[in-house]
Amino acid sequence: MKRCCFQAAIALISILCFSGMPGFGQVPTAVLTGVVKDSTGAAVPGVKVTATNTDTNLTRDAVTDESGNYRIAALNPGPYRLDAEVTGFKKATVTGIVLEVGQQARVDVDLQVGEITQSIEVAGQATVLNTESNLIGGVINQSRVTSLPLNGRNFMELTTLTAGIAEGTGSAAIVNKRAPTAAGMPHQDNNYQLDGADNKEAFFNSWNLGPSVDAIQEFSIQVGQYSAEFGSGGGAVINVVTKSGTNEIHGTLWEFLRNNQFDARNFFLTPSQTIAPLRRNQFGAAVGGPIIKNKMFLFGNYDGSRIRQGLFRTGVVPSAAQIGGDFSGYSKNIRDPRTGQPFAGNIIPASRLDPISQALSKYYAAANNPNPAQNFTTNVSSINDYDSGLFRYDWRVTSGNDLMVRYGIQDIYQYTPGTFPTVGGLIVPQKPQNLAINLTSTLTPRLLNEFRASYGRQIHRQRGQNSGNPIAANAGVPFAPKEGSGAGFVESLSLGNTIFTSLSEQQPWFLTVNTFQWYDGITWTRGKHNIKAGADIRRHRADAFLGTRLNNQYTFSGQFSGDGFSDFLLGNMASSSIALAPNETGRFRRTMLAAYVLDDWKVTPKLTLNIGLRYEYAQIPRELSGLTPNFDPTLANGQGGLRFPKQNTNAEAFYKNVRPDLGFGYLDRETLFTPDKNDIAPRFGFAYRPFTGNRSVIRGGYGIFYSSPQLMNLIQNSVTGPPAQLWAGYTSDATRPTLTWAGDVNNPNGSLATAIFGVLTGPENHWTDGYTQQWSLSAAHEVTGSTVLEVQYLGSKSTHLENSLDYNATQPGPGSVQTRIPWPKWNRVFGFNSSGASNYNALLVSAEKRMGKGLMFKGAYTFSKTLAKNGARSTGNVGQVQNPFNLRLNNGYSVDDVPQRFTGNFLYELPVGRGRKLGSNMSKAVDALIGGWQVSGIVTLNNGYHLTSPTVAAANCNSSPTNLCRPDVIGPFLLGGNGLVTPRWDRNAFDWPLNTAKHPAQAPRFGNSAMNILRGNATNTTDLGIFKSFLLRERYRFEFRTEMFNAFNHTNFASPNTSVENPNFGRTFSTSVGPRTIQFGLKFYW
């Protein structure tokens, strides 16, 4: 008996742990459910119910239970016909059903007594209301994807049309991607799916592959309260479903054009300035059809873009005579650092000119403008190209097995020119890819299995235009690479106290992130219960290299000769950062596991309970070469040092031979922290229909969600510190030049008084995953057969959010900070922990009308408040804590807080033309001109975002070399306005803690300003689209489109300056949304 129980337990665990894993979001399909009744209203058991996709003729069926309930799962989005048949009743057919991704649609069927050979057909549609779960969110269907005006044809622009969603302010901007925030959570907690497969890029925590809008069937946005099948940290689940082939061959060709000739002028352009040149072309094709009708289908898509954006560059360049040392016409006297006296004739002797400086000076352009303040001007053009391809293969292998294979790839190339033609340009290539394989198997009419495997890859590079060309090495710069991508120009030649422009170039860095996913989920329908269990395994492999200081950094301040450029010619730098060893590549590995079980329990015909439980486990990323050190304050007799996960030859040699004064050692584990193993997440929800029929529903629920540490933060701080980067900082004597290009010959180890390591990782040993509790209550009513009004409350409380602190800080006080901090030999001891917290409360109101009588619209209003505590990452202020000794003083609004936001979108078919209300009998020629026009639009209104705290220089708090310092608030500061004519905030309402001029006897202290008390300007935009189709033959038509972004040219001013010490505090000099731009498009359908 015990053996039997043991085997049963093992079987159950196997199902839960290996039949599917975190529904980090898995459902790219829909469900049809309902009840079959006779004419008296009694339930009819044993009815065969068949759903047929009318595009492919593929079917799935189910049999009603004793209560007449049926449920058909794993249906691809699209048009359906529903047939119900049983002996003793006429066959009933419901047509016109359209299913959307993630939808649990309800279609009830009434049977009439008669012969099964007789049939009754009714036109119907799935219930517009969600009557089966507590999910909060919506679907952007194909009509909206293809009809609404899209800036850049980026489908993510449409995610913000759902209540509870706002435009994010996170790091995804680095890679030019929209990163929406949902339910008050930062964008990093979103979950991105492509056909149910993982599509989240693990470094930037944004979506990886963005398919063309013409390859998208539709996508769903789950804002909150999703089931135990889905994981992530409580942000949105965005699931995109690609198109598949059908029984008919269909295709599309398109070309979109935009240029500056049709653009409005920016508000801040002067009358003499012209609009920057722009040439933007987007083009492509899509085609899908059958390989074998009713069985095998193929769809393919190509999308390309070519963008050339004009840029105006200015600089001040030295003349050939000045590069040769002749400053005879210069406004300054050039001093000889050896004597302190001016050079004779203001000419530096040729024998004194440094040969390395001479070689590097050749990369200045020649002057081309008589204006001495801008003697070099040029018009250049940035390049932004991409090519994108996607194919999808669908195969009905057997009557109970469906296979889908889909692969997508993008090749992106971006180039931004520098000030001068031969140096400073930035090249950014990227190549995201995603492969998904899905097998859906109907094991029995009540048992369904879904297996999915996916692979995602992101290759992201950045390099200077001279990468691979050993300019610095050939010039004689010590330690500069002579070959490989690291060879190039000096990273930074910073010139101070001079009119001449500095020279610099981006050093190479690369990132490759591979994500592997294996998922399996099994669904069992029995009686009133629909039980689903699953497990998900994800494996991340990330390789990162950062070439900072690879070709060294040099600062020429002018303190020796009176001018920074002449200091450069003499080779007399004020400071330098010199690489002591080649930078290393970080190789990070992480496995994430999850398992879940859920039950959708139809307690009564009117009440459904959604009950679930999931477990998640996320490894702390492991670096294979031991590049993730942890700071140990006990090393070196309390002076502090680093402990490494494993032995690293470079680190050991550096600490033993170069810096023996700094402590180092090894950890007793391979990861930076020990992981959290307690992530148990229950979910509960209900959906109740209080009245007869399906027109009203009350829904609500509660759930717990977890977020794991971000891969980006760990990688960035690992590859920017030792041993991945070993470098020394040097500072010259203040009165005489003591540095050479190779550093300080008298101090070869670098300056001990300042940090030599940039960012370090702090002394945390255990990690606690972020923990979010979320709850909701909503009521919805179907006002008409196609219009739904819904009011929702959504709240959440988050604890243990990712945070970062500088542990090397002290209380404010007099004297040098460096001598008072805990570990004077170190600058910033930058540590991650989970001390952050936040809470969110929101009222969500939405009204949606599906297409009918030529009109479709949706309006979404959000009234919310998002508060962040302890400097949590949800504030956007990672590393920006003022007082690390009392984190409760670092509370305030989140920078993602938007109190009020409204979005509206619509599609309207003008009632003019043949077969329409007006002019139904007009001629074809007239109809071609004025008939059949359609108008679409998106309206967005929202309050300004909270900005990072008003700041003053860190020295005003005098507690840390790097920590943020906030001012005192001594009066009302809001003046109103937008910061254009008058400041938005009153500068006199703020004072800084160490204002010795006003308070000479006041001791240093922290300012009393709360976090993020300033708010930026509101946004008001309207995008419009006007288009018309021209029918050529029955299956062939052209479509002409005109799209206007910011159609009414409303000026949206950017956030004002937030530095209290800046004279422009509270003023704005730019816009957050560009002026009106117009795009023309032509599409051909067949």
Provide a short characterization of the protein structure.
This protein is mainly beta and 1086 residues long.
Structural commentary:
This protein has 1086 residues and is mostly beta strands. Helices cover 7% and strands 43% of the residues. It has a domain of 107 residues: TonB-dependent receptor, plug domain (Ferric Hydroxamate Uptake Protein, Chain A, domain 1).
Characteristic key phrases:
disordered N terminus, 11 helices, 1086 residues, five-stranded mixed sheet, 22-stranded antiparallel beta barrel, mainly beta, Ferric Hydroxamate Uptake Protein, Chain A, domain 1
Compile the SSE list and pairings.
Elements: H1 2-18, E1 30-37, E2 48-53, E3 59-63, E4 69-75, E5 78-85, E6 91-99, E7 104-106, E8 109-110, E9 119-123, E10 136-140, H2 142-147, E11 165-166, E12 181-182, E13 191-194, E14 197-198, E15 200-201, E16 206-207, E17 216-224, E18 237-242, E19 250-259, E20 278-292, E21 296-315, H3 320-323, H4 355-361, E22 376-398, E23 401-416, E24 426-444, E25 447-464, H5 471-475, E26 492-495, E27 503-504, E28 509-526, E29 529-546, E30 553-556, H6 564-570, E31 575-579, E32 586-602, E33 607-618, E34 622-623, E35 630-632, H7 635-638, E36 641-644, H8 649-658, E37 663-666, E38 679-688, E39 696-707, H9 711-719, E40 727-731, E41 770-784, E42 787-806, H10 817-820, E43 830-852, E44 855-869, E45 892-893, E46 900-909, H11 924-930, E47 933-942, E48 968-969, E49 990-991, E50 1019-1033, E51 1036-1045, E52 1052-1053, E53 1071-1073, E54 1077-1085
Parallel strand pairs: 1-7, 1-8, 6-9, 13-18, 26-30, 36-37
Antiparallel strand pairs: 1-4, 2-3, 2-5, 5-6, 10-17, 11-12, 13-14, 15-16, 17-18, 19-20, 19-54, 20-21, 21-22, 22-23, 23-24, 24-25, 25-28, 26-27, 28-29, 29-32, 30-31, 31-40, 32-33, 32-34, 33-38, 35-36, 38-39, 39-41, 41-42, 42-43, 43-44, 44-45, 44-46, 46-47, 47-50, 48-49, 50-51, 51-54, 52-53
